[in-house]
Fold these 3 entries.
Entry 1:
Amino acid sequence: METTCDDPETARLVSRAITPDNTAEMTTRVEGDRIVTEITRETTGGLQSTVDDYVVNLGVAVQLANQDGEPSTTTTTET
């Protein structure tokens, strides 16, 4: 999954907020203004559950990173 933030500092801030919730099957890194998270699960159900949790955590982190409380990032999922 890739999340594009307004700037590299916001990407770093959001990444630091969500990384502690990563499971052993997840890696997260920052590439400029993007947060790149890779998730590997053996089952589709496990993948769906992990992605659902990640998206909720990401949404909270993005809102906290923005002073106005409104999300201002675009999240895209690559298959």
Entry 2:
Amino acid sequence: MRRVQWVEAVGFVVSVLVVLAYLVGRRSADEQKRRFVSQSSQSHGFNAQALVRFTFLINTDIASMTLFSFFKNDIIRRYGTGTVVMDKVSEASFRHEKVAGNLKALLNPSLPCIAGLRWERLVELVEDRANWSAPSCRLFVVGDEFCAEDAEKVAEWATFWQFPSSSRLRNPAFRKIDNLPLTVRFDIWEAFQEFRGGSREAAENFLPTPSSKRSLLFNAIFTVEMSGSRQECVEVLNGLNSSLLSQTSSFVHISNAWAKEDRLDSPGFVNAANYTNILHNSVFTLSPVGHHPECFRMYEAMDAGSIPIIALDETYQKKDCKDGLYPMIQEGAPFPFLRTWDELPSFLEKWVKARPSEIDELQKRITDWYEKYMRARTLEFETRLIAEFGSLENTGSHH
């Protein structure tokens, strides 16, 4: 009896010690967190807050311009941890040349800024940096799908870089720069939301139709003039075995030239609603290299549960943006990679004969990888923001 009581007493003491250790550890962790935020705030002149909130504004009110948005949709909300909040998203920083060209007139020198510019615009800004007063504007996201040789001019100003290449990864000037994925275009994401029930919540919680239940074996929607890889893909498509085509359905829409106006309103282009429906009903999406191997199509396909097919062909290996998918490959992207588009017919025939469970397993591997990859890249972005700017009080007066 006494031994039982003794054992119970020892167990009670151990439990108390465990609780005390947890509380002490938690207090220590909280103190470290407060110290980090305090130090960051002191170094950058901001008020300390546990929740870091940034106001991303693109509008006509120049006085309220604080941060340029560089996303085509609110990736921060979809994949972020909540430590950084994006209040408003616009494509202006990418496409609106007038806004981008007058960036220095729009910056608020008292607040941090993020400029999502094509490299040419950033080169102009950096070369003229002695004449613009934005000391807190230190973080840049640069888009350059052509991998220009003189992009080193802005490397010291860039914290994130879109459209990577192996040549840049080997360049010491770029080693500190993280890759930021393109994600889904903002207009296509709007169509995705409508397709998935009309609300943001429904779209984000959407479970894609299993590959084995989809009506289209593949889709091919692209402009052929962009690269030799696309021309080769078209030639292979034109020569597909009639028996294969008779067993399956597909959607092929090839344009000869890129329209200068908005593609969604251009004659001969697939509109956003139809494109969305096609992606959500296709097992595979052909994604030949364009100006750069990375493209919105890849992300739109994965988001819709369609498996992108990519050829690591001569165009991929020899263009200025050589090995442009290196960050994805390094992270174990489970895409079907072909050596050339000549392998496409046998690849498709293989999957036509495969068991439904096999194609569903491949789809799941890719969608799971996609989710993990996007969350990791977004966390990197949030971490760099906090490291660069400390914490920033979000004021609602700018809305």
Entry 3:
Amino acid sequence: MKHLQIILLTLVVLSTSCDESDTAKVVDEEVGHHVVTVDQVSFDQAWAQLQTDNPYSDMFQLNGLSNDSTTLIIDVAYSGGCEEHTFELIWPEVMTMIYPPRYTVILNHDANDDTCEAYLSTTLYFDLSQYDLGLTPELMDVVDLTIINGSNGEELLKLNN
């Protein structure tokens, strides 16, 4: 009887466990939220915070920047894996009246006090068509856009530059 219980317990554990690739996939799908904020006060506060030794944003790394029509695509990497992470792209309200338009925006990261040490890479998609930025698909192909890392003001990526 004891052997039967051990065999049944082993089968239950094996049937409900997942392999390493399944775990990595789940973590990758649970990146968290990413939002766009278009507000001059928020941008000014984030910019001022970048000038201090205590940035508002949790640490992360910018790995790539591209666009597909009006969707901004940003590749990032960060430590974590146990909590939901949020990325916020902060745009100033000021519209430039030059062609091509020029924008400097800040990407902040909130790790929600995640103390796990896995190093995760993910791609963030920001659909900019739903915001009053005046960025048509044609302008997205020529816009001079600089993304500044909110945790390290010296790290930046440029689109179309």
